[in-house]
Amino acid sequence: MKFFASISFSLIIAAIAITTVDAIALDEKLACGAPWNIAHTEGAPCKFWGKDGNGTHVHDGTCKKRNGFHLIHRLECITTSVDLQTTCC
């Protein structure tokens, strides 16, 4: 019984984290979709690590629908600004 209670508690915490965390994604498709930003809709703010001429920085953007048919990643993050203060790798 304790095992099932701990599994249920873990699943509840994971569900809350998935719907409330606004994670910085690894690319523009993951910024608006599964697994961490699955609750994003079109027009929602998003962030992802992206390479540009000055290195790798956090790109701030807005979720927009992708062209064509995409079963999993229907939205992608369109960059509106780049935070040059945050660098990676």
Task: Supply database-style keywords.
89 residues; alpha+beta; 21% helix; 3-stranded antiparallel sheet; 3 strands
Going across the biggest sheet, name each strand in turn. 1-2-3
Oligomer: single chain
Strand percentage lies at 35-45%
Instruction: Please give the alpha-carbon distance between the first and last residues.
Output: 45 Å
If you compute it from the alpha carbons, what radius of gyration comes out, rounded to the nearest whole angstrom? Answer: 16 Å
Number of domains: 1
Helix-strand pattern, N to C? HEEE
Helix content class: 10-25%
Tally the helices: what do you get? 1
How is the main sheet built? 3 strands, antiparallel
Uncertain residue segments: none
Please provide the count of β strands: 3
Rounded mean pLDDT is 77
Q: What general form does the structure show? A: extended
Backbone structural class: alpha+beta
Give the SSE map.
Layout: H1 2-20, E1 45-52, E2 55-65, E3 75-88
Antiparallel strand pairs: 1-2, 2-3
Textual characterization of the structure:
Keywords: Signal. Residues 1-23 form the signal peptide. The chain is α+β, with helices and mostly antiparallel strands and 89 residues long. The protein has one domain (2-88). Helices cover 21% and strands 37% of the residues. It is built from 1 helix and 3 strands. A 3-stranded antiparallel beta sheet has the order 1-2-3, with no helix packed on it. The radius of gyration is 16 Å and the shape is extended. The mean pLDDT is 77.
